[in-house]
Amino acid sequence: MSPQAGFAVGETVAHYRLLDYIGSGGMSVIYKAEDTVLGRLVALKFLSDNLTREPAVVDRFRREARTASALNHPNICTIHEIGEHEGLPFIVMEYLEGRSLRDVIRGHPLDTDHLVNYALQIASGLEAAHNAGVTHRDLKPANIFCDHERLRENPGFRAGEAHVAAR
Predict the structure, then answer these.
(1) What is the strand order of the sheet 144-146 is part of?
(2) What residues make up the domain containing 70?
């Protein structure tokens, strides 16, 4: 799904007002949105429209969101809700400000202090997921988010598998 595939900035999806297009990946499109009920910023992750016709993919998308929503750790992005709008399933996640680890390390190596700090935070999030019986299935710098306080792994978990705070 691309930003022009039916949703526009300013449009309301359920009780979320779309504020900005964040990006897209192989399976999803992500928007920054405002929760108009609770008055907070969130990220809405929509399953790409071409995948919504595949029931197994839709089931996996929902199952991963349910699995990730059970994890509660400062280095794992919080899942707030699973929804559907006009036949398109979506996940409502904590909105994170910052950059992906991929963007942080692009073009230059990390100094040792930052490298060790990041490694410890990633390991802490993964340990929490593993202790809950969840394994990250797509751990890579693009799925690790660096906000102003800590690293967060991006949700992309399955039952028995997991993503750490992701976008």
Answers:
(1) 99-100, 144-146, 151-153
(2) 12-153
